[in-house]
Amino acid sequence: MSIPLADLIDPKLIALDLRGSTRPEGMREIVDLLVVNGKIDNAERFLSELRERESINSTYAADGIAFPHARTKLVDEIVLGVGRSANGVPWTNKGEVANLIFLIAVPEILISDYLVVVGAIARATKDRPLRTLLLHAESVEDFTATL
To answer: Phi then psi for 72, rounded to 5 degrees?
Structure first.
């Protein structure tokens, strides 16, 4: 099953100008968007779950893309927040930076649905011209239209 990525993203959950200069700061900015928009009510707990997942295996994919995620009891549906950083957020010990961060909160019971979301992200972001358009979109509307 394939789902267009644009169908999974609420434009209110997209930050086109992340200011964080570390992985925790970048994730915090996106999680704060989720909190402000009523998607998650316990930022600290979710951030802890994200850090725990990240400590097991980096969620950096390649080409400036990261998709931090955690299974959690804090959501009843899959929630996807997006952050973009022009300078890149240092993500790995190898010096790789993430320019596009797709942060995913997954209910513990929706594992197969989560795989569909990750597949949609992977398909959309493996296309270099599309990544370039996403990195240069001037508005949230342009960003979602590109997806």
So the answer is: -150, 155
